[in-house]
Amino acid sequence: MKDAIAILAGGGPAPGINTVIGTIAKVFLQSGYRVIGLHEGYKSLFSDDPKMTDIDFELADKLHKQGGSALQMSRHKPKDEEFKVDFFTKYNIKLLVTIGGDDTASTANRISKYLNEHDVKIQNIHVPKTIDNDLPLPEGSPTFGYESAKQEGVRIATTVYEDARTSGNWFIVSAMGREAGHLAFGIGAACHYPMIIIPEMFNKTDITIRKIVRLIISAMLKRKLLGITYGGVIISEGVFHFMSDAEIESTGINFTYDDHGHPELGNVSKAHIFNLLVQRELKRIGLKVKSRPVEIGYELRCVQPVGFDLLYCALLGMGVKKLFDQGITGCMVTSDQKGDIAPLYLKDVEDANGKVRPRLVNIESQKAKMVYGFNQQYITLEDYEAASEFVQNPEDYDFFRILEWEPFSFV
Question: How far apart are alpha carbons 342 and 2 in whole angstroms?
Fold first, then answer.
């Protein structure tokens, strides 16, 4: 039987998936391999009737520039007892390529260990994908899809900011990011939003709804002092990841609940939640500011990849073949800023539970310090006297007091 490779994609879409699939298919077809695409990710891999597509050169050539994924994706996370070798042996699979984020990578790590324990000689290489940019790649190397998603996010956020200027309103923008703030930070910094709120900035204090609302109003107050009636705040949805259910439920929002009794945040607009809470607080303190919610999320995931990701994903796809030819397995494929390919072994980036550790925004980096030190607008001690014209307790909206940061110590 002809040697074959199998490709699957897990998690949510990200620009560049088809570029990876198409490139991998082309280079392995050229070497005489059968290329099998699996629909529904791990769910199909371990089913008795896997949903498969044979990828030929014509299909690979057609799809590599497209957004979305030619292989239907799934967030299914198989339990260890679901693992079996049937698919690999039946189709003579020599390489399993998994495309995905931290959950997909963690499962790939478990599968790699399982195959090794059962003496199944199949290589396993993971291609790191997520618009969240939160996989632990070498410093300066983004996950594929991030740059394309950020570019589309910048386009939307710029238009929203222009609406704010035109209408004299504020916009509360929420950006995707399950537990890291890379996307919100990148979009907000590029668009000069006067306030960017990400979970990493709460490195000295707990994240609470109250603190986030006060940070937003801090920016609104500062702009008032500057004679500016409009503005925008961008918040990473990842802030919810670090809150308790009780904290989330304290918002008074009517949530649906999952099977474990946790609020289903995916069913509500995070921007709507924060805008509603800000408006409540503004009315309570008697500050007249109009604001509107905007959610930036699903619009980013299936856009056509920009030039950066088209080339980057092609390099990663070719890098899979390079690592495969070297006999390397149980790793993520990486490409540095020079385009050099190297393996990042999954065992080296896992925590005690076997889960791949997320890469958070380095709030101590020079880039973060410059953005928060020079390009954000908020109330500080020097503004108390002027701000007292609008609020009774200006210190409640002091950026540094809220975050428990030392003033300007990071600049």
Answer: 28
